[in-house]
Model the fold of this input.
Amino acid sequence: MSLAGIYVHLPYCASRCGYCAFVVTTDGSSRDRYLEALEREAALLEGEAAETSFDSIYLGGGTPSLLAPEAIARLVAALRSRFRVTGDAEVTLEANPEDVGPPAVAAWRDAGVNRVSVGIQSLADAELSAVGRRHDAARARAALETLSGSGLSISGDLILGLPDQTRESFRVSLAGLGGAGVDHVSIYLLETEKSKTIEEDRRLHPDRYLSDDAQAELWLEMGEWLASGGFGHYEISNWARPGREARHNVKYWLRTPTLGLGVSSHELWGGRRRANVSNLDQYLAALEAGRRPVALDEQVGPAAAAREEIFLGLRLSSGVPLERIAAFVVGSQDVRLWNDYEGWLTEGILERSGDRVRFTERGYLVSNEVLSRFV
Ligand SMILES: C[S@@+](CC[C@H](N)C(=O)[O-])C[C@H]1O[C@@H](n2cnc3c(N)ncnc32)[C@H](O)[C@@H]1O
Ligand code: SF4
Done:
């Protein structure tokens, strides 16, 4: 039985990047109140998690690396004192390249962080400045170099589909990241609908963007390149060296219980999906009044759980049990879904692997379409 995980959302950023739709703020004035609120939230959750052991903590954002290392140390210690966190738990910190330097990395390690996920996004200056990143390629490379000698586990994010990105510049970014001693890589397709400005720009200047076909070709090429470099493709957007898969993130796709603390955090707990309010003032006010800041709290019934098991599990290369997906498709009494499912298998979008069904590499390219049929 897998152990549970704890996610903590830290919404503060130095500036907002052009493509980002996460719940973030560039006003740091509430930072101390927020850290206190998180400790209050942990205290309110302590009772219901008393019987649970946790083996992952994920400090995500926003930009957690903007916090002073002492604040990170205090937060990790507070979580460890409220919850039963195993000694060897994976403790991840999301960091932006401009915050990564030898003193910060040493302090994070002392705070109990053992994994850093760094938002490289690209190693081309034109692409970085086009979306308002605060770092340039040289800074990103320096961050990777600092991290590679630190003994921490390192993950790096890239985005495919940025404005002004070319096939060649993407290959350079991928080679730079893959060759920098990282043991985990996340590559996201730019979701342009998350930003009106980028969506509008793509409509007005399509020449600044790689076509869908070019992105698909690059996607398959990069998969082969990463595989030849020893990275296994274990989830749609994630590759890892053996044993370096993100323990925390895998819990989301396997529906393992996780607690979510902080503004806008989501959790699956006791068979319920719960979400905190997305408004920072409301989040602070609720906790300062001694109340949980919950905006949504729903029991996941058996039918919804079966659906979730399929659309989350299919994201993983391990796929889902054949009997579960077949039972779901037949049970849906949706003839179109049944025909489509058969078609996905015969066309090589899905494949059988032993007693499981999973996407093929090519199938991942149309995974949104397939997964949306199970949501
Ligand atoms: C929660 S964000 C925070 C990471 C960190 N603050 C940073 O900027 O590097 C995690 C990752 O989501 C990805 N991301 C954010 N917005 C995206 C979008 N619109 N399309 C694709 N990927 C996105 C980026 O690669 C980013 O590193
Ligand atoms: S991408 Fe990262 S740094 Fe940029 S606004 Fe989003 S969370 Fe903040």
About this structure: The chain has a mean pLDDT of 97. The pocket of iron/sulfur cluster (ligand 2) is lined by residues 13, 16-17, 20, 22, 24, 61-63, 96, 119 (CB under 6 Å).
